[in-house]
Amino acid sequence: MARYGLLGEHLGHSYSPQIHALLGSAPYELFEVAPDEVEAFIRGGGWDGINVTVPYKKRAAELADIRSGRVEALGAANTLVRKDDGEIFADNTDVLGFMALLEDFSREKLGRAASAAFAGKKVLVLGTGGAARAVSYVLEDIMDAHPLLVSRTGEVNYGTICERAADASLIVNATPVGMYPDCPASPLRPGTIDCFPGLLGVVDIIYNPRITGLCLEADARGIPWATGLPMLVWQAFHASELFLDRKLDKALAAAIIAEIDKRNTNIALIGMPGSGKTSAGRCLARMTSRTFVDLDDAFTACIGSTPEEVIKGRGEAAFRELETELCREYAGKSGLVIATGGGIVTRERNYPLLHQNSVIVFLDRPLEELSSAGRPLSQTRGIGALAQDRLPRYRSWADITFSCTGSAQGDAEAIRELLGL
Asked: Where are the alpha helices (DSSP H) in 87-228?
């Protein structure tokens, strides 16, 4: 049986096995190899086709027997195939993946082909590594744009880009800054994005989380953005064609992008205390074979005291600070059903934490059906006063507002139908 996989140093976050299972290039394994073992692994056999990720793309190109034109131009390979005679062929399908991502982004968000949108224009490429070189190759050699690579210490750096590139039309993040679990983070200082009045869009090749910190900033300003899942799927699509030695139906890539996004997007339930988030969330998690997380239960397990005990003993502000840190931890993960506390919306900083990787669903239950038992803020302030403050926030945060059915099972079934799961 053919053996495929991904070679890298740290691979726990990868979606590649899911994607290649759908492409038919399976079994597909994760090969975590130390730097001093890379040559022996690549040359020694035991695989038929592998993808290669950081930090081994340059070494993969060097160790191959035959290199594509793209690999010769870039000095980096992300795909290796072992031929029947044992020779190793190297290609760079990152180039093809980024081309597809940029073309889809340009047509969907800007209404024109990428070459028409960016030809002759300056593009800021954050990073100088292998991914940045692949991005620049597409921009310069195929799109006829003018990529400007930004490094930490070079002449064009994160402190000088506002003065050196105020006329940039596109920003592409080709660094790992903002990748799970360090999310949402951005390679740019807060507000830097405002230096570019002619900015047409932001593209981040990171795919996990589904909305990166850089793209959250763009989203908040109404700037078109895209993250890297389409690039990941399209580079895998072209790698799979090499692995299988046959052409695949291009419609398959679009279907896989939608499927992987659906599988890995969290479902975050918000709503008033007592609205049924926990009971509906448990049912929904069972129905969809997802892991369920109740942030109040996670809080108790982590802190050793219940939210009620912390609010009564240390005050609401102390509780909210701890709650935000738990939200940061769990909302950055993928494929969960998350039941939040009723007051999660009282801190604006919690919104990007949830929004980065979740569809946010507001469970709207009539106030007269809510209980205040065991809920200190509902008891001290009153349900009506809490609702007056929170209901506008629930509605503004929600991707979907859902009127509760009266049962946890009914709510879960209806939410699953709304989300197409």
From this structure: 94-105, 114-118, 130-137, 161-164, 213-220
